[in-house]
Structures are given as C-alpha cells and as structure tokens.
C-alpha cells in the first residue's frame, strides 16, 4: 500500500503545472475576445471555484500525501486561471454571470458538496477523487468553446486546461485504483 501511495505521489508531483495560465498581455490581447470567450469565462469561473473549494476540503480532510499534493496543485493553477478570467470580464466590462442558469457538466450539488466536506480519511479520499474526475471531465467538455477563439490568450488558456486536467485525470484514476 505504501508503495502505491509513493507512486501516486510521484505522479502527482509531475503534474504540477510549470506555467499555469496567467493573464499576461492584457492591453493587446483582450481586444478580440468574442462573446463565446466571455461566456466561457462566466461559466468556467464558478466551475473552477468549485474545484478549488473541493480541493480545500482535501487539504483539511485528507491525510493522503498524493491527494493533498494534487489538491494544492488544483488550488494554485485554477486560482490563477480564475483571476485571469475575472480580468477578462472586468476589462471588457462584462457581467460576472450570464444572467441565467446553465447546468455545467461535472458540477456537484450543494448537498453533495456539504456531504463531501463532512467526510474524513479514506472515505473522503475516494469520494473526492471520484467527484474530481467527473468535475475535470466536465471542464474538458466546456473548454471546446474556445476552439474557434481568435484570442491568443483564450487559446492558450484552453490548451493549458486541456493539458493539465487530462494529466490530473490520469493520475486520479491511478489513485482511485488504490482504493479498490
């Protein structure tokens, strides 16, 4: 079991993004953000925020080093991406929300979130990994909105999300197998 945890930890460390998406050249690159780019940000901000909140539970409720390392990486990278997308909305004087409700794949309900926060140990770890795999898969489905973006920063964000979250999904599936 210890060997599996060590292997999972090493996989997780290798996932830490060297360059998570950050808003870099705002003045030049935001002029051609499309309505779809803006809608993506309005949807992805709360999606990412839920992943950050789930990860904060992991930092509090898990003693598994691999899961804590993964959670730290998620808080860091998705927190930076949230800041970037919030800047897009602010710079373009766009609303922080779309003004109507849209279901987003991978999101868990408030009730499920509360239940997750109340778990500890291996029960938490398994529930967290299971929920986060689905959550990341939902983000991968959403990121296709940026495929036709003309904005270089939006395209880079999409590429970074795809790269990091696919890698994290692979790691989480390996971690989940250790709970079988």
From TrEMBL:
Organism, scientific name: Candidatus Planktophila lacus
Pfam families: DUF305
Record keywords, A-Z: Signal
Domain DUF305: from-to ranges: 37-176
Record's signal peptide: 1-23
Protein name per the record: DUF305 domain-containing protein
Family annotation (InterPro entries): DUF305_CopM-like, Ferritin-like
């Amino acid at each position: 079991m210890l060997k599996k945890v060590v292997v999972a930890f090493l996989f997780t460390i290798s996932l830490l993004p060297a360059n998570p998406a950050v808003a870099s050249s705002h003045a030049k690159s935001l002029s051609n953000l499309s309505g779809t780019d803006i809608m993506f940000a309005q949807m992805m901000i709360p999606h990412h925020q839920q992943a950050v909140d789930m990860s904060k539970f992991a930092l509090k409720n898990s003693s598994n080093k691999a899961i804590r390392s993964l959670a730290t990486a998620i808080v860091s990278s998705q927190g930076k991406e949230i800041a970037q997308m919030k800047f897009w909305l602010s710079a373009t004087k766009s609303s922080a929300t779309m003004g109507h409700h849209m279901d987003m794949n991978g999101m868990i309900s408030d009730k499920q979130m509360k239940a997750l926060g109340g778990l500890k140990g291996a029960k938490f770890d398994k529930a967290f990994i299971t929920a986060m795999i689905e959550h990341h898969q939902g983000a991968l489905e959403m990121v296709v909105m940026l495929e036709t973006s003309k904005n270089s920063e939006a395209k880079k964000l999409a590429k970074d999300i795809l790269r990091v979250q696919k890698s994290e999904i692979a790691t989480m599936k390996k971690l989940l197998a250790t709970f079988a």
